[in-house]
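Let us practice reading a record.
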Amino acid sequence: MVDILHRVGVVAPLDDVYRAVATPEGLAGWWTTDTVGTGEVGGKLTFRFGDVGGFDMRVLELDPRGHVRWRVTEGPEAWVGTEVDWHLDQRGDHTIVLFAHEGWREPVEFMHHCSTKWATFLMSLKELVETGRGRPAPDDVPISDWH
């Protein structure tokens, strides 16, 4: 198994970053505007990206002290069964986001693409929390023919 790992510092209180990754409204502000679901443990979140498709996630953990975890239940075969994990840590004026997309079976080309897309969306998260405006899909940064 292989994982996608990223770290980004956000100049904002942990509570603000937590709301951006733990609520459908927050997620719609930086990942995709087509976000639906419940922000509670056991709930389902759906994320759609137009013609590209999307993902369904089951919320596994929510801890306002700085932890969110989802399991992918539907989407591209390479994603199903993987887990997305967020650890947030307040350090002075920054909230450090340690992001992991865990459990990929192998490092296929699609995983490379997804790693880069996660990085662009993490920068969108940073922009949303710091400035009030992110770049969620469909206005995200295109990186290839896969978007």
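A brief commentary: The chain has three helices and seven strands.
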